[in-house]
Amino acid sequence: MKSVFPRSLPTLELPRFDGNPLEWPTFISLFKCLVHDQPLTDTQRMTHLQRALAGNAKKAVGGMLTHGHLYREALKELEEQFGSEESVAGAYLKTIFDHPEVCEDNFAQLRSFYNTLHVAVSTLKSLSYVHDLAATDNLRRAVQKLPETLKTRWGEKRVEMLPKTATLADLDKWLRERVRAKSLISDQTLNSCQSKESKVTPREGNRRRNNRKGPPRSDARGAEFSTLTTRVNGNRKPTRPLVNCPVCSQAHKVEDCPDFKRLDVDQRAQCAKEKNLCFRCLSSSEHRAKECSVRKGCGVDDCLKRHHPLIHGAAPVFVGAAVVGCSSPTVLLQIVPLLVETPKGDIVHTYALLDSGSQATLILEKFADEVGLEGSKEVLTLGTINSKEVSKPSRKVSFSVKAASNDSAVTSILIPEAWTVPQLNLPRQRITRSVMQTWPHVADLEIPDVDSEYVTVLLGANVLEAILQREVRRDPPGQPAAVRTAFGWT
Asked: Could you tell me the pTM of the whole model?
C-alpha cells in the first residue's frame, strides 16, 4: 500500500534568483534538489534555470540560456560571480557590520543583532567558511556593535577562553545565552504583571476605585488607568524607581554613596571616569557634561566651573583629552613597549600608554608623520574634567601593532581608528628595574624599563584586544599592581 503523506505535502517552487549573494545558498540548494539532481537532460535543466533567473544573475549568463549544451558552463559562471566564498561570506558579514549599534538595555535591538549574527554564522558554518569565522577583524567589528556592558563581559569571556582564540561562532554561542536569559526575565516580568492584574475581581476593582480620593484619570474613552510604578490620581506625580549606585550597587545616588565619599578627590574623579559618569551631575552615563541639564557652577570656594562639588580640585583624568593625572608616586601609568607596522612594511619600536577610560586611540602627529601614516583630515574635539572642550585639526589614521617581546601569544593587533594630536601631556614617569626590585610581588616578572617621555601612542577602549587585562598580580594596599596585557607585563 502506498503512503498518502507525500501526496499531501505542498509542491516546492523554485525561487527566483536575482544575483544577491545572500540568497545564493538557498537558491542553489533548492535548484540542485529540484532540477540538477533529477533525471533530466541539460536542455531541460537550462529551461528551468532560465525561468529561475532575474536581474543581474540573468544578465551574467544571458547569452548562454538559449543553448542547452552550455548549461553546466552557465551554472559555473553563476557560482563564480555570486556564489564564491568571497561573495557569500562578504554579504553575510556585511549584514553584521551594517547593523546599528545596540543601545544599553535595549532588548529589541539586542535580539535583532543576535538574529543577524546567528543567521550569518550558521550560513558560514554550513558552507565551511572557517577562515571567515576565525578572522580576528571580523570578530572585532561584530563586538563593536554591542553595548559597553556586554563588551566588557565578552572581554572577560575571552580571558577565560585563553589560550584558545575566539571566533564569531564563539560570540554567537555566548550571545545566544545572554539573549535567552534576558528573554526569560522579560517573559517572567510580563507574566507576573498579568497574573497580578488577573487576580483582581471586578468587585475589588470597583471598590478600589471608589475608595480613591480625587478625580480619576482617564484616557480618551474615559477608562481609568495607572502606571506600572504607581497609581496616578489628583496632582500626585508618578515616582521613578531609584537606580542602583554604579559604585556600590546600592539603591542611592552616587553623591550619597558612603563608599564614594570615603575616596579622596582624585580617586573620586578616577572612579567617575571609569564608570563613565557625567562629571557635572555624577548621576548618568548616558550623556556628556556639555549635554547635562545641570547649569549651576561647582560652588566650592566660589568656583564657577561646571563640575560636581565632590570632584572639585581633582587632577585631570579625562584621557579623552589626552591628559592623565598622577597624584601619587604609587599610581603608575600602564606603559608598554610595542612595535608599529608602517605602510611600507617596516617595523618601528615605540611605547604606548594603555587606558581603558579613553574612548579613542591617540597618536603623536610627529610620530605618525615619521612612520608614514596617512589618513583623512578631520576636526577632533578634546574634553577635560572641567567640561572644557577644544576643537583641533587632526588626522584619522589606522595601523597595526604587536608586542615587542617574542613570548606574546598575540601576533598583531589592528588599530582601525586613531587620531593624531600634537602632544599627549603625560606626567613624567620613569620606571626602571631597580625600582621594581623594591616591590617583591613583581620582582620576578619580566617588566621592561619604561619612560613616559617616549610614549607616542595612547591605546583606548576602541581597541579592546589591546587594553584587555589578561592577568593581575596584587599586593598589600599602597603598592602597585602588575597587569599582563597583549604586550606583556606592565
From this structure: 0.39
